[in-house]
Amino acid sequence: MKRLLRWTVIALSLLLVVMLLNAWRISAPTFAVRPYRPALDADVLAQRLAAALAIPTLSATAEAPSLARFDELHALLQQQFPRVHASLEREIVSHASLLYRWRGRSDCPATLLAAHQDVVPVEPGTEALWTYPAFAGVVADGAVWGRGAIDDKSALMAILEAVEYLLARGFQPECDVWLAFGHDEEVSGLQGARLMAALMQQRGVRLAYVLDEGGAITRAAIPGTHKPLATIGVAEKGYVSVRLLARDGGGHSSMPPRHTAIGRLARAVARLEEHRPAAAFSSVQRELLRRVAAHVDPLQRVVLSNLWITAPLVERLLSAQPASDATLRTTTAPTILRAGVKDNVLAQQAEAVVNFRVRIGDSIDGVLAHVRTTIDDADIEIAVDGEFRSEPSAISPWNDVAFSRIETVLRNVSPEADLVVAPYVTSGGTDARHYAALTPRLYRFLPVTLTPELLASFHGNNERIPVDEYLRMVRFYLLLLQSEAPVDSQRQL
Question: Annotated catalytic sites, by residue?
Answer without folding.
Answer: 118, 185
